[in-house]
Specification:
It contains nine helices and 14 strands. By secondary structure, it is an alpha+beta fold. It has two domains: 145 residues, Immunoglobulin-like (Sandwich), CATH 2.60.40; 114 residues, OmpA-like domain (60s Ribosomal Protein L30, Chain: A). The strands form three sheets. A five-stranded mixed β-sheet has the order 1-10-9-6-7.
């Protein structure tokens, strides 16, 4: 009996010494909800078209296009899940089509932060085409804390076809520019005059279009400048004439005069050296700056 007990204790000791991986295995953690709950939601405006899909416990997948920019696909995480690096992507047919094999797609970069994956317009079009055909997208990447188990994020195609059609309809109404592109505009003048060329006048069109479309734009600053040539008093007067002329153009095209603050500075604020012709040309300008509700005006150059 003593020999049997010794053998049993020896066998138990061997089992306890086995590596944990040999008895636990490795399995992917999957983020994705029931098919019945999957849906795509469109947020549409003239400023941005946004088609989003909520991924339970993970975050959301979004097809987005901002006015004046290209379409993108963004995979956002609400917490820190995926590690930075390269994620594998595959397209899969519904589970009831067992004979269809998954199709690998080009890998994508995973970045640290909330917007984990951001693709260009070409790749976003490919992803949209896969979803439109009823295939789900699976993103696979190791977690941020370097555990061995990979993570899988599933983007479901349920309801996507109707959603993407509404998204495309939204694209037709987008403005040609966004706020960042027209927040500050500079109009250049020939030496000694207050006349603007046609090309400079054309710069006003997107500014006016955006300012009239966005009710948050409540202030427009117009600032006149000259180069350093000539007398300071004359330069100050010329900058006033230029600024007031641009202000009148804005008013004539529908911007309320009460929203406009007109200022002139002569040669006081050069943006380039007055020692060269190129520098003087940059300094002969009127700048137009849009400001939206709640935006601070402190430390803003004229």
């Amino acid at each position: 009996m003593r020999g049997v007990g010794q053998n049993l204790r020896r066998a138990i000791g061997l089992v306890l010494c086995l590596p944990l991986v040999a008895v636990t295995g490795s399995r992917a953690e999957v983020f994705g909800g029931p098919v019945a709950d999957a849906r795509w939601v469109l947020d549409a405006s003239v400023f941005e078209c946004r088609l989003s899909h909520s991924i339970p416990r993970f975050g959301e997948a979004v097809f987005t296009r901002r006015a004046g920019e290209e379409q993108r696909f963004v995979l956002s995480q609400s917490n820190r899940f995926l590690g930075a690096g390269e994620a594998r992507v595959r397209s899969e047919h519904p589970v009831w089509r067992e004979t269809a094999s998954p199709e690998p797609l080009a890998p994508v970069a995973v970045e640290v932060g909330t917007k984990t994956v951001t693709t260009d317009w070409r790749y976003s079009q490919r992803l949209a085409a896969e979803l439109r055909e009823g295939r789900r997208l699976v993103f696979t990447r190791e977690p941020w804390d370097n555990r061995q188990e990979p993570m899988e994020v599933i983007v479901a195609p349920v309801g996507f076809r109707a959603g993407i059609e509404a998204f495309h309809a939204c694209l037709q109404s987008l403005l040609p520019v966004n706020f960042d592109q027209v927040e500050r505009t500079s109009l250049d003048f020939p030496a000694g005059t207050q006349e603007l060329s046609e090309s400079e006048l054309d710069k006003l069109k997107p500014v006016i279009l955006y300012a009239k479309a966005d009710p948050r734009v409540d202030r427009v600053y117009v600032d006149g400048h000259t180069d350093g040539t000539g007398l300071r008093a004359e330069n100050l007067e010329l900058s006033r004439e230029r600024a007031e002329m641009v202000t009148q153009l804005l008013v004539d095209r529908g911007i309320p005069a009460r929203q406009i603050t007109t200022r002139w500075h002569g040669e006081r604020y050069p943006v380039a050296s007055n020692q060269s012709a190129e520098g003087r040309a940059e300094n002969r300008r009127v700048t137009i700056r849009l400001e939206r509700t709640g935006q601070s005006t402190t430390a803003r150059a004229p």
